[in-house]
Specification:
Number of strands: 4
Radius of gyration: 21 Å
CATH class of the domain at 11-82: Alpha Beta
CATH topology of the domain at 11-82: Histidine-containing Protein, Chain: A
Distance between the termini: 68 Å
Structural class: alpha/beta
Largest sheet: 4 strands, mixed
Helix content: 40-55%
């Protein structure tokens, strides 16, 4: 896992770099949600995740992906849900509630 080529960095730094690259590779392979807004930093095996995602499901799934990477010691999750993501969720919920209310009104008319 650690590249032992002529690299002047310390073994811990090489491992950190490998973990960071592996997480980024996994995020780039994701097709079911957008992980491009997530930034990854690794120091001493501790992964810091920052940036934004569209919704809570994307946040949860992103952290789960990181858990699959071997060698990390801890995850410090600072990912936030984008405001437009929250607005979208609220809008969808409002539409669903409105549709349910309309269905009830139609049932009363019968």
């Amino acid at each position: 896992m650690v590249n032992h080529s002529k690299d002047s960095s310390l073994p811990g730094e090489q491992e950190d770099r490998w973990i960071e690259e592996e997480i980024k590779r996994k995020f780039n392979a994701i097709t079911t949600w957008d992980a491009t807004g997530i930034k990854v930093k690794v120091k001493h095996g501790i992964v810091l995740l920052t940036g934004t995602v569209a919704d809570s499901k994307a946040l949860e799934q992103s952290v789960l992906v990181v858990f699959t990477v071997k060698g990390l010691k801890q995850i410090d999750n600072k990912i936030r849900i984008r405001k437009d993501g929250i607005a979208s969720i609220i809008s969808h919920l409002a539409s669903d509630i409105e549709a349910m209310t309309d269905d009830k009104d139609e049932d009363k008319d019968k």
